[in-house]
Description:
The complex is a heterodimer of chains A (about 550) and B (about 130). Chain A is of the alpha/beta class and about 550 residues long. Chain A has a domain at about 1-75 and about 235-250 and about 290-470: TIM Barrel. Helix content of chain A is about 50%, strand content about 5%. Chain B has 5 helices and 5 strands, in the order E-H-E-H-E-H-E-H-E-H. In chain B, strands 2-1-3-4-5 form a 5-stranded parallel beta sheet, sandwiched between helices. In chain B, helix 2 (about 45-55) crosses helix 3 (about 70-80). Chain B is globular, with a radius of gyration of 13 Å.
Amino acid sequence: MFTKELLDKSSLLRKKWEDEVKKVVAKHADQKEEWSTVSSLNIKRIYGPEDIKDMDFEKDIAYPGQFPYLRGNQATGYRGKYWTFRMFSGMGTAVETNKRWHYLLTTGQTGLSTAFDFPTLMGYDTDSPKAKGECGKCGVAIDTIDDFRDLINGVPLDKITTSMTINPPATALWAMYCASAEQQGIPLNKIGGTIQNDMLKEFIAQKTLMCPPEPSVKLISDTIEFGTKYVPRWNTISISGYHIREAGATAVQELAFTLRDGMEYVEDAIRRKGLHVDEFAPRLSFFFNSHIDFFEEIAKLRAARRIWAKAMPERYGSKDPRSWWMRFHTQTAGCSLTAQQPYNNVVRTATEALAAVLGGTQSLHTNSLDEVLCLPSDHAVQIALRTQQLIAEETGVCNTIDPLAGSYFVEALTNEMEEKAWEYIHKIDDMGGMVAAIEKGFPQMEISDAAYKFQQQIDAKEKIMIGVNKYVEADEQIEIPLLEIDDSVEDEQLERLAAVKRKRDGRKVAECLNELAGACKKGENVMPYCIEAVKNYATVQEICDVYREVYGEYRDPGIY
Amino acid sequence: MSDRRIRILLAKPGLDGHDRGARVLARCFRDAGFEVIYTGCHQTPEQIASAAVQEDVDVVGLSCLSGAHKYLFPQVAKLLQDEGAGDIMVIGGGIIPDQDMQALYEAGLKAIFTPGATLDSLVEWINTNVKPRA
């Protein structure tokens, strides 16, 4: 990167600076001995040319739209298009969530993102005993295509992309989307959106579980194959680090485990489905957390793009640069927010959103200040969305692409993130891949270690959370309006489900489910069978019960 | 006074998968010298009550962040009563709004811990309030 002359000069100046530092510190000691990121990565007092002297501008940095895509996939950056303002929402019934969606679309939001309630997320219907008390609490309840149609009512499916945070029952919910689009006369090749559909991170972190890892990956490869053939504008997976981070992982762990998960899916689709990597890899999408440590997050996101761009041709012989692009959504860190002094959360979220933008995200959800306490109120959501709009249109950070490139510190930290992530990736390779690593409990234990260490650091005030362990307000009364989901939602949804069950053709449903079971047993792609089943009003749970029956049920082993 | 160590069952009732708090506590309690049994996620109140009885624990710690605590926590306390194990103490934690506290205490929970509680304060609370049952 630099001439020998410059490095020599720098070394001389650095020596002088170090001497000066020694003198000052002898008189006035630093405020604390160790300066590290929120993930406990040590940071030096200063960075200079010598910290990035081994970088090769062409190989390691280059320009946006050029390998290794460190600086972004698109040549024009945010001048061409801002990131998608995509706020995650869902509560109560489909009709209520649909109202919230129409409100959000009037406020300038450019994409939709669905939060489902726990029974839906886990593949249980509202009338299951396991669902009691949970209906509509953390998101919208969907049992049948009837609910789904109410959910998307009036949303132009060929214009607005919708993301669905759904994992074990992803095939069922995607089938509902496909069937609803067809019924609206919109062909499958015109609809766009995302299903999260990333089971590996469920075993690692989020714990919405259904079947064991191996068949879970099979179902995902089914969706990748179906999307490649029939729904080419759909992102059939959103390979997610968000939940890994929320579970307590460090930034490096989030980066490494997420990318290694992505590699596992690529390997399975190639091996099981006989697809060529470039047939499907351009539709793989990712989802990261943006935590409070500003530069660490920027470095992480930049490193993610470069690792993926290298891995795809090197590991899988990919020839199409579109497969090398790491496209990702980002959400600010829920776990960084505090119940104490909740208005401070606006500042945290703004800082994290800014990091995501400087890291080049393509889509963003900003958390609302009250999300640590309840589902967000309209007003809190509006502030969170305005935070994004303000970053985009007032602050000027979108004027130029990847403005931090070339910073000694940011480039050195980006390199460090990448190196440390590769160490983990190779370690997991050596274990036989991510499924094998999960079965050994490896990523789970690494995250547990990090989460425990962080809590101890908070308790010891080595890491600071304002309002929690510093600047605490004694006897604080938290007075913000809480949005509560009324228990009557459950009764209403039970009635809706009962009505559908009364009017549908029970024999036809049983037939569809039987055929789905047959497809599972024969190893066929389940998607066409799912679409047929949901059209005939099979419920989410009925489809998932077929999977549990054929593939077996997975229970959380409770690793800590 | 028995020299038996305090036995604690940590459990995640319902469908909530937010287990960071429960897992951090499991480690913390283990390091504090308690015998810890962690159920993992997605336990029904019936499973939790029956595990508590079978494992002969002194205290059950419930963690829920989904908003379903209003049904799940009292249900565990009630099932323990029904099984004649009302002397097993039940405590809870998670995202529990202030206005729900009273109902949970009335249902038999002995303590509710919310975000911001330190690990030390939890260990101290248990050492002060839980005695190993004979």
